[in-house]
Design goal:
Strand order of the largest sheet: 4-6-5
Number of strands: 7
Shape: globular
Distance between the termini: 61 Å
Helix content: 40-55%
Length: 239
Protein backbone atom coordinates (compact mmCIF):
# COMPACT_ATOMS: atom_id res chain seq x y z
CA UNK A 1 0.00 0.00 0.00
CA UNK A 2 1.45 3.33 -1.04
CA UNK A 3 1.87 6.12 1.50
CA UNK A 4 -0.78 8.31 -0.16
CA UNK A 5 -3.31 5.47 -0.26
CA UNK A 6 -2.63 4.73 3.41
CA UNK A 7 -3.01 8.41 4.26
CA UNK A 8 -6.29 8.53 2.34
CA UNK A 9 -7.66 5.56 4.29
CA UNK A 10 -6.67 7.16 7.61
CA UNK A 11 -8.31 10.47 6.68
CA UNK A 12 -11.46 8.67 5.54
CA UNK A 13 -11.66 6.81 8.88
CA UNK A 14 -11.19 10.07 10.79
CA UNK A 15 -13.96 11.68 8.72
CA UNK A 16 -16.28 8.74 9.47
CA UNK A 17 -15.61 9.00 13.22
CA UNK A 18 -16.29 12.73 13.27
CA UNK A 19 -19.45 12.25 11.18
CA UNK A 20 -20.66 9.65 13.68
CA UNK A 21 -19.97 12.02 16.57
CA UNK A 22 -21.80 14.84 14.80
CA UNK A 23 -24.75 12.53 14.10
CA UNK A 24 -24.83 11.47 17.77
CA UNK A 25 -24.79 15.11 18.84
CA UNK A 26 -27.67 15.91 16.49
CA UNK A 27 -29.71 12.96 17.77
CA UNK A 28 -29.05 13.87 21.39
CA UNK A 29 -29.84 17.49 20.66
CA UNK A 30 -33.13 16.62 19.02
CA UNK A 31 -33.97 14.33 21.93
CA UNK A 32 -33.58 17.27 24.28
CA UNK A 33 -35.71 19.37 21.96
CA UNK A 34 -38.51 16.81 21.95
CA UNK A 35 -38.44 16.48 25.73
CA UNK A 36 -38.80 20.24 26.13
CA UNK A 37 -41.56 20.38 23.51
CA UNK A 38 -43.61 17.85 25.49
CA UNK A 39 -43.75 20.00 28.62
CA UNK A 40 -47.36 21.00 29.39
CA UNK A 41 -46.70 24.75 29.47
CA UNK A 42 -45.28 25.16 25.96
CA UNK A 43 -47.31 27.93 24.38
CA UNK A 44 -46.54 27.12 20.75
CA UNK A 45 -44.07 25.54 18.38
CA UNK A 46 -40.49 25.01 19.60
CA UNK A 47 -37.97 26.32 17.09
CA UNK A 48 -34.37 25.25 16.45
CA UNK A 49 -31.79 27.71 15.17
CA UNK A 50 -29.19 26.67 12.54
CA UNK A 51 -26.52 26.29 15.24
CA UNK A 52 -28.64 24.11 17.55
CA UNK A 53 -26.55 21.63 19.54
CA UNK A 54 -26.55 19.51 22.69
CA UNK A 55 -27.19 21.30 25.98
CA UNK A 56 -28.20 20.60 29.55
CA UNK A 57 -31.91 19.86 29.41
CA UNK A 58 -33.06 22.07 26.56
CA UNK A 59 -31.19 22.03 23.25
CA UNK A 60 -28.85 25.01 22.92
CA UNK A 61 -30.06 27.16 20.06
CA UNK A 62 -33.72 26.35 20.64
CA UNK A 63 -36.54 28.83 21.23
CA UNK A 64 -39.06 27.70 23.84
CA UNK A 65 -42.33 29.69 24.00
CA UNK A 66 -43.27 28.87 27.58
CA UNK A 67 -46.56 30.08 29.03
CA UNK A 68 -46.90 30.49 32.80
CA UNK A 69 -43.55 28.89 33.63
CA UNK A 70 -39.83 29.31 33.00
CA UNK A 71 -36.95 26.80 32.78
CA UNK A 72 -33.75 28.25 34.30
CA UNK A 73 -31.43 25.78 32.56
CA UNK A 74 -33.00 26.68 29.20
CA UNK A 75 -32.28 30.35 29.86
CA UNK A 76 -28.70 29.32 30.57
CA UNK A 77 -25.95 30.34 32.97
CA UNK A 78 -24.53 33.36 31.14
CA UNK A 79 -27.34 35.72 32.03
CA UNK A 80 -27.28 38.92 29.99
CA UNK A 81 -24.88 37.54 27.38
CA UNK A 82 -24.90 39.92 24.43
CA UNK A 83 -23.04 41.85 21.75
CA UNK A 84 -22.35 45.58 21.47
CA UNK A 85 -20.62 47.59 18.76
CA UNK A 86 -19.21 51.11 18.79
CA UNK A 87 -17.99 53.15 15.85
CA UNK A 88 -14.75 55.06 16.47
CA UNK A 89 -13.51 58.22 14.74
CA UNK A 90 -10.66 56.22 13.17
CA UNK A 91 -10.31 54.95 9.60
CA UNK A 92 -8.40 51.98 8.21
CA UNK A 93 -5.33 54.09 7.40
CA UNK A 94 -5.11 55.13 11.07
CA UNK A 95 -4.42 51.56 12.14
CA UNK A 96 -0.80 50.40 12.33
CA UNK A 97 0.45 47.75 9.92
CA UNK A 98 1.37 45.57 12.88
CA UNK A 99 -1.68 45.15 15.14
CA UNK A 100 0.16 43.29 17.89
CA UNK A 101 0.75 46.46 19.89
CA UNK A 102 -2.94 47.32 19.63
CA UNK A 103 -3.81 43.82 20.80
CA UNK A 104 -1.44 44.12 23.75
CA UNK A 105 -2.94 47.49 24.69
CA UNK A 106 -6.49 46.08 24.70
CA UNK A 107 -5.39 43.00 26.65
CA UNK A 108 -3.73 45.17 29.31
CA UNK A 109 -6.89 47.24 29.82
CA UNK A 110 -9.54 44.52 29.56
CA UNK A 111 -8.84 41.40 31.67
CA UNK A 112 -9.94 38.17 30.01
CA UNK A 113 -10.18 34.57 31.20
CA UNK A 114 -11.87 32.49 33.87
CA UNK A 115 -11.96 34.36 37.19
CA UNK A 116 -10.03 37.35 35.84
CA UNK A 117 -10.85 40.87 37.01
CA UNK A 118 -9.40 44.34 37.43
CA UNK A 119 -6.65 44.54 40.05
CA UNK A 120 -7.81 48.06 40.96
CA UNK A 121 -11.45 48.21 39.83
CA UNK A 122 -13.25 51.47 39.22
CA UNK A 123 -15.97 50.82 41.72
CA UNK A 124 -18.18 53.85 41.11
CA UNK A 125 -20.36 52.60 38.25
CA UNK A 126 -20.18 48.96 39.28
CA UNK A 127 -21.25 49.78 42.82
CA UNK A 128 -24.11 51.82 41.41
CA UNK A 129 -25.28 48.76 39.46
CA UNK A 130 -24.86 46.48 42.46
CA UNK A 131 -26.90 48.77 44.68
CA UNK A 132 -29.37 50.40 42.27
CA UNK A 133 -31.73 47.48 42.44
CA UNK A 134 -30.38 44.61 44.47
CA UNK A 135 -30.87 41.06 43.25
CA UNK A 136 -33.37 38.87 45.02
CA UNK A 137 -30.56 36.57 46.13
CA UNK A 138 -28.41 37.92 48.96
CA UNK A 139 -24.83 38.28 47.77
CA UNK A 140 -21.90 37.60 50.06
CA UNK A 141 -19.24 40.25 50.53
CA UNK A 142 -16.86 38.18 48.40
CA UNK A 143 -19.43 37.91 45.59
CA UNK A 144 -19.97 41.67 45.63
CA UNK A 145 -16.23 42.36 45.57
CA UNK A 146 -15.73 39.91 42.69
CA UNK A 147 -18.66 41.41 40.75
CA UNK A 148 -17.09 44.86 41.09
CA UNK A 149 -13.64 43.58 40.04
CA UNK A 150 -15.09 41.75 37.00
CA UNK A 151 -17.21 44.70 35.86
CA UNK A 152 -15.95 45.82 32.44
CA UNK A 153 -14.01 42.61 31.76
CA UNK A 154 -14.28 39.98 29.06
CA UNK A 155 -14.48 36.60 30.73
CA UNK A 156 -13.88 33.38 28.81
CA UNK A 157 -15.55 30.95 26.42
CA UNK A 158 -16.75 32.54 23.19
CA UNK A 159 -16.50 36.11 24.49
CA UNK A 160 -14.28 38.44 22.50
CA UNK A 161 -13.25 41.96 21.52
CA UNK A 162 -12.83 42.58 17.81
CA UNK A 163 -11.47 45.62 15.98
CA UNK A 164 -13.07 45.62 12.55
CA UNK A 165 -13.82 47.76 9.49
CA UNK A 166 -17.12 48.59 7.84
CA UNK A 167 -17.76 49.12 4.11
CA UNK A 168 -16.52 52.70 4.41
CA UNK A 169 -13.27 51.68 6.14
CA UNK A 170 -14.46 53.13 9.44
CA UNK A 171 -13.01 51.38 12.49
CA UNK A 172 -15.45 49.69 14.85
CA UNK A 173 -15.01 47.86 18.13
CA UNK A 174 -17.22 44.79 18.55
CA UNK A 175 -17.68 43.20 21.97
CA UNK A 176 -19.32 39.98 23.13
CA UNK A 177 -19.60 39.46 26.88
CA UNK A 178 -21.98 38.51 29.70
CA UNK A 179 -22.55 38.81 33.43
CA UNK A 180 -19.33 37.03 34.36
CA UNK A 181 -19.07 34.90 37.49
CA UNK A 182 -21.90 36.49 39.41
CA UNK A 183 -24.43 35.78 36.64
CA UNK A 184 -23.29 32.17 36.44
CA UNK A 185 -23.57 31.72 40.22
CA UNK A 186 -27.07 33.19 40.33
CA UNK A 187 -28.18 31.00 37.42
CA UNK A 188 -26.73 27.82 38.92
CA UNK A 189 -28.39 28.58 42.25
CA UNK A 190 -31.82 28.87 40.63
CA UNK A 191 -31.31 25.77 38.47
CA UNK A 192 -30.62 23.72 41.59
CA UNK A 193 -33.52 25.38 43.40
CA UNK A 194 -35.87 24.41 40.54
CA UNK A 195 -34.66 20.80 40.65
CA UNK A 196 -35.24 20.68 44.38
CA UNK A 197 -38.71 22.12 43.95
CA UNK A 198 -39.62 19.43 41.40
CA UNK A 199 -38.60 16.71 43.87
CA UNK A 200 -40.47 18.43 46.68
CA UNK A 201 -43.65 18.62 44.57
CA UNK A 202 -43.24 15.06 43.21
CA UNK A 203 -43.01 16.32 39.63
CA UNK A 204 -41.36 13.66 37.44
CA UNK A 205 -39.61 15.05 34.38
CA UNK A 206 -38.06 13.28 31.39
CA UNK A 207 -34.91 15.27 32.15
CA UNK A 208 -34.20 16.80 35.59
CA UNK A 209 -32.48 19.74 33.86
CA UNK A 210 -35.90 20.82 32.54
CA UNK A 211 -36.95 21.77 36.07
CA UNK A 212 -39.07 24.92 36.07
CA UNK A 213 -40.68 27.65 38.14
CA UNK A 214 -44.39 28.42 37.86
CA UNK A 215 -45.45 32.02 37.34
CA UNK A 216 -46.95 33.65 40.41
CA UNK A 217 -44.79 31.75 42.87
CA UNK A 218 -42.06 33.33 45.05
CA UNK A 219 -39.45 31.16 43.29
CA UNK A 220 -40.51 32.47 39.87
CA UNK A 221 -40.45 36.10 41.02
CA UNK A 222 -37.07 35.68 42.69
CA UNK A 223 -35.59 34.16 39.53
CA UNK A 224 -36.92 36.90 37.24
CA UNK A 225 -35.57 39.58 39.58
CA UNK A 226 -32.11 38.02 39.54
CA UNK A 227 -32.15 37.58 35.75
CA UNK A 228 -33.07 41.23 35.20
CA UNK A 229 -30.37 42.34 37.63
CA UNK A 230 -27.73 40.19 35.90
CA UNK A 231 -28.83 41.51 32.50
CA UNK A 232 -28.45 45.09 33.72
CA UNK A 233 -25.01 44.26 35.11
CA UNK A 234 -23.91 42.71 31.81
CA UNK A 235 -25.33 45.56 29.71
CA UNK A 236 -23.63 48.26 31.76
CA UNK A 237 -20.41 46.25 31.85
CA UNK A 238 -20.28 46.33 28.03
CA UNK A 239 -20.80 50.10 28.04
Amino acid sequence: MSFYLFLGVILALIAMVFSALELAAIVLGFTGYHKAARLPFMGGHVALMPDAHVGMGATIGSVLPTHGAIIPSAVGVDLGCGVDAAQTDLKAEDLPDDLRQLFSGIASKVPAGVGKGHASPKSGLANAILNFKKPSTDLTQKQMETAVAQFGTLGSGNHFIEVCLDENDKVWVLLHSGSRGIGNQLAQRHIEKAKGLMKQCFVKLEDPDLAYFVEGTPEFDSYITDVLWAQAYAFQSRG
